[in-house]
Specification:
mainly alpha; 76% helix; 13 helices
Length: 297
């Protein structure tokens, strides 16, 4: 059991991580490169930044790459990125807001099947409130709902692999230190994305300066900081709780799009965003309460 001060810091770090991840949707919307190229360079530049740290740290050993578990987790992450970025090409933002809410449902399903000890009363209710808010946000453009079956399906599949990636990494995160874990997983994800680009036939070069800046921005912000924070938090709190906080990303992305791109914020986004934030705060509060009941002094 972690003490209160560390737990508070984990929640604050998690909130900051979600804020940084929220830039991903804006950066992807601004890029005009093929989806698989965006996904690859996002991870490639991430590894480029982290490699000097891997070489310097004494707890980073090449033996880590011979464990098949990081290979599997890296594969899940690569598939998630490919599906998520590609979905933006075929479906409306409103649809993506709705279907991203499925991610914690998938994580909850995995935990119910394989890690029942992680489930705590209160998470279900907070999850339901947050998902309701996400549906309200997406309801602002119901005419577009299921307008593109291909894009909607890709978004659902991206949510599935995101939940699988977070859940499958939790047991390994408890055994490995933070940095060796993320570097190994990110390296394998990059390798899988490299193979995907080669088979896709797209060129590795010839993209505008704006695209290269966006690739680097996706690596430094949403990945190096954002996704790494998720991997840090999942060691200390249930994967479902971490996944639930990600539902707040569409609200923050809408705000960032308004500030950076001039996109208007529909009234339903404000209403739904209130539900989402309340659901997240409720889930975290109940999680703390149940920890106290399970571990009385």
């Amino acid at each position: 059991m972690i003490n209160k001060s560390i737990e508070k810091r984990i929640y604050l770090i998690l909130a900051a991580g979600i804020l940084v991840i929220s830039f991903a949707g804006v950066f992807v919307a601004m890029a005009d490169a093929p989806a698989i190229i965006i996904a690859f360079y996002r991870m490639f530049f991430t590894i480029a930044v982290l490699t000097p740290v891997f070489i310097y740290r004494k707890d980073c050993r090449l033996e880590l790459f011979f464990d098949r578990r990081p290979v599997i987790i890296g594969f899940f992450l690569a598939i998630h990125f490919i599906l998520w970025v590609t979905a933006f090409e075929y479906t409306a933002v409103a649809n993506a807001v709705i279907f991203i809410a499925l991610q914690p449902l998938f994580t909850l399903l995995f935990e119910r099947l394989w890690a029942k000890e992680d489930l705590r009363p209160g998470i279900y209710r907070g999850l339901f409130i947050a998902i309701t808010g996400s549906i309200i946000v997406g309801a602002g453009d119901l005419n577009n709902l299921f307008a593109s079956i291909r894009g909607d399906t890709l978004a659902i599949m991206a949510a599935f692999f995101a939940g699988l990636y977070l859940f499958s990494g939790r047991s390994l995160r408890k055994k490995l230190d933070y940095f060796p874990y993320i570097y190994t997983v990110y390296t394998y994800a990059t390798a899988f994305l490299l193979i995907a680009v080669i088979f896709s036939g797209y060129s590795f070069t010839g993209y505008s300066q704006t695209n290269w800046l966006l690739f680097i921005g996706l690596a430094l912000g949403p990945t190096v900081i954002g996704h790494s924070v998720l991997n840090l938090a999942v060691r200390y709190v249930p994967a479902t709780l971490v996944s639930t906080t990600i539902i707040g990303e569409p609200v923050l992305t809408s705000l960032l799009a308004w500030i950076l791109l001039g996109d208007k914020i529909p009234p339903l986004t404000i209403v739904g965003g209130t539900f989402i934030i309340y659901g997240l705060l409720y889930t975290m509060r109940r999680n703390k309460q149940n920890k106290k009941l399970a571990n009385p002094k």
